[in-house]
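Supplementary Methods. Inverse-folding protocol.

Structures were first reduced to a discrete structure-token string of length 725. This string, shown here, constituted the complete conditioning input.
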């Protein structure tokens, strides 16, 4: 067998000194990192607990699915609003340069707080009349017969609303969550609209209030104006006062009014003036005798000149609209007509003209006198009419002034809001929560964390030997061999088959014992911490491997309590044996030859004495000394160390101790305690053989490359009776 096929810890020279061992252990401890968790060990621990771990994951995922299906679906609708900052008109360039960014941040943070304020929630509750909206109350989580207060509903809304500013933009999302898609959309839009309305009122509230006040005043003045106009109209109708069309004749555009009587009087006055002028012209022509046309013309011209001079003076002093001015104008026109018609008239014609002019003048004078009487009579009634007319005029002026102011405020209040609804909320098509995928992922993540914690806790609490390489670091003991788990039913056949993994493992261990022991060492004791760690089988296997090398080998069953080897070799029923010989009950040591394994064997036998008392006698050391002379190798199968005094008593009588440790079961603490008991006897501990390695120790490969030892599968089967010892 090539030496390179054996594990590094198995092939070693004789054990170094204590100082060298301590130094080597210290160096190895620094390299390996004492106290650090080995990821592979954690992985192996997870494989060991895989059914528990799979169960935890399955339960967590199933529970997540079940709870998700039980939860009420929640719908989230989102509205998007834009917030633009409006700088104050008083802000100067220097202030903006110094405080621009900070002021912007302060402004937007203020708006975000206002979006989440209770006042806004109360506005939404009031605008939507939520206390009476059963659909909305149900969507917010209230029972069908609940009658919550407005404050309670506001609190619900504040818990259901979500305000999220979008990075690097002026946009803010307003999200509402409820059990109804339609209610969520409606409340999200109401929230955004109320926020925009509140901001608009804040900016233009004073102007709007002023407009509302002016609107109320305008309504009152309109009513007063209508009443005063109605009263004026009724008075004029009752008193026969007819107002003619207004005429604007003043420079400032003021209008004057005339009643029907005043208009008639003025007309008759003008007509009378013209008739008088014609009458005067006819008289002048008649006095001239009608024969002297030149004289008549001269008189008319003289009169025209006088009238023109008078008219010019009156226009200057009285104005063109004066009645005297109008009468002079009428006389002038008549004189000019008479002048034009005078030529060629006879005396009879001139007298006829005079008579006609006199009759016309008399008739107009009579009509003028009558109109004047009516005017004088109307003047008394016109006083009250004027009062009523002035009241109408005053009311109209006030109304027109307020109306103009109202229009001006309307223009001022029509400013643009600095905030706008960019995207209204729409009813979502699917629920926002619960999310089956999200919950399953959370459950999966949580279960994995629990599983990881379970593996970690199990590993931290587990002090069992899983990594054989830690033996030297933690216990200061060399590793002699690694023995895989085996099928107990044909163990003898496996030991005799040199190609079997079990045989190969013990062959490797035998070589390691040769390297660890001295040239004069012949008696090797095989022990363990506790029963059922493979101690008896290891004793038989090592003895068989020494015998295969041509050595004369003796195998002694010194486990006087359990008699594992005797039971395995079918020698347990005989009473004579090592126990009886050491107790002095038989004279001769009963040595038998086992042809199957090619070695001599001493069974345990029976005795009435306590095994500890038997082994404590000097006869034990004597008989072992005699056997040293007779055999090349003596293998002593000793009892376990802990709990018994047998093995420490034997330890001082042997040349070396081979310690058996069961992988994954024996703890470093118990093994350390047992080794301390043996070291206290000044015994030489050759090393440790780790038995029953399985898939949990796959990384060590038993020294023969990956996969060694797995040819038996995982049907490890429990050893029964003495086979386990």
């Amino acid at each position: 067998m090539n030496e390179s096929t054996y594990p590094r810890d198995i092939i070693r020279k004789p054990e170094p000194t204590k100082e060298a061992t301590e130094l080597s252990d210290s160096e190895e401890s620094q390299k390996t990192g004492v106290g650090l968790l080995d990821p592979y060990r954690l992985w192996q621990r997870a494989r060991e607990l895989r059914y528990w771990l799979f169960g935890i994951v399955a339960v967590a995922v199933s529970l997540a699915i079940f709870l998700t299906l039980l939860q009420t679906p929640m719908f989230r609708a989102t509205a998007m609003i834009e917030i633009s900052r409006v700088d104050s008109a008083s802000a100067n360039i220097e202030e903006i340069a110094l405080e621009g960014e900070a002021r912007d941040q302060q402004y937007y943070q203020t708006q975000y707080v206002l979006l989440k304020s209770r006042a806004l929630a109360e506005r939404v509750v009031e605008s939507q009349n939520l206390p009476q909206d059963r659909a909305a109350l149900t969507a917010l989580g209230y029972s069908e017969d609940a009658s919550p207060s407005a404050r309670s509903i506001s609190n619900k809304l504040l818990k259901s609303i979500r305000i999220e500013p979008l990075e690097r933009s002026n946009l803010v999302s307003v999200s509402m969550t409820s059990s109804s898609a339609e209610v969520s959309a409606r409340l999200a839009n109401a929230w955004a609209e109320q926020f925009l309305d509140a901001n608009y009122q804040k900016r233009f509230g004073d102007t709007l209030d002023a407009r509302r006040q002016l609107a109320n005043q305008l309504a009152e003045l309109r009513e007063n104006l209508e009443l005063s106009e109605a009263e004026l109209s009724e008075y004029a109708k009752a008193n026969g006062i007819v107002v003619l069309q207004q005429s604007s004749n003043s420079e400032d555009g003021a209008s004057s009014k005339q009643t029907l009587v005043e208009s008639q009087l003025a007309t008759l006055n003008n007509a009378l003036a013209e008739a008088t002028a014609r009458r005067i012209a006819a008289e002048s022509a008649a006095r001239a005798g009608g024969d002297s046309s030149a004289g008549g013309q001269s008189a008319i011209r003289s009169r025209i000149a006088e009238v023109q001079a008078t008219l010019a003076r009156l226009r200057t002093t009285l104005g063109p609209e004066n009645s005297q001015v109008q009468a002079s104008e009428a006389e002038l026109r008549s004189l000019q007509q008479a002048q034009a018609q005078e030529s060629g008239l006879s005396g009879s014609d001139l007298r006829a003209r005079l008579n006609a002019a006199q009759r016309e003048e008399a008739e107009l004078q009579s009509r003028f006198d009558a109109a004047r009487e009516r005017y004088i009579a109307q003047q008394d009634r016109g006083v009250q009419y004027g009062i009523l007319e002035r009241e109408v005029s005053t009311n109209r002026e006030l109304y027109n002034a307020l109306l103009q102011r109202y229009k001006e405020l309307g223009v001022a209040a029509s400013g643009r809001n600095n905030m706008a609804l960019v995207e209204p909320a729409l009813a979502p098509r699917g629920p926002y929560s619960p999310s089956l995928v999200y919950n399953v992922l959370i459950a999966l993540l949580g279960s994995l964390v629990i599983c990881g914690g379970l593996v970690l806790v199990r590993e931290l609490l587990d002090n069992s030997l899983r990594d054989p390489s830690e033996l030297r670091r933690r216990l200061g003991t060399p590793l002699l061999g690694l023995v895989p788990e085996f099928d107990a039913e044909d163990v003898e056949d496996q030991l005799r088959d040199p190609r079997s993994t079990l045989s190969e493992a013990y062959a490797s261990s035998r070589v390691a014992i040769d390297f660890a022991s001295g040239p004069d060492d012949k008696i090797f004791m095989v022990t363990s911490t506790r029963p059922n760690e493979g101690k008896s089988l290891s004793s038989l296997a090592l003895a068989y491997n020494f015998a295969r090398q041509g050595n004369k080998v003796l195998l002694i069953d010194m486990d006087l309590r359990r008699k594992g080897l005797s039971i395995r070799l079918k020698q347990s029923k005989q009473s004579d044996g090592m126990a009886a010989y050491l107790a002095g009950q038989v004279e001769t040591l009963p040595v038998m030859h086992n042809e199957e394994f090619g070695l001599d064997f001493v069974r345990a036998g029976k005795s009435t004495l306590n095994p500890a008392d038997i082994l404590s006698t000097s006869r034990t050391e004597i008989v072992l000394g005699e056997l040293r002379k007779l055999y090349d190798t003596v293998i002593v199968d000793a009892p376990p160390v802990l709990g018994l005094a047998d093995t420490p008593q034997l330890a001082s009588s042997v040349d070396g101790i081979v310690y058996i440790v069961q992988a994954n079961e024996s703890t470093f603490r118990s093994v350390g305690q047992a080794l301390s008991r043996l070291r206290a006897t000044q015994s030489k501990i050759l090393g440790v053989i780790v038995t029953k390695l399985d898939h949990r120790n796959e990384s060590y490969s038993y020294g023969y490359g990956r996969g060694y030892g797995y040819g038996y599968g995982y049907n490890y089967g429990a050893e029964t009776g003495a086979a386990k010892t």
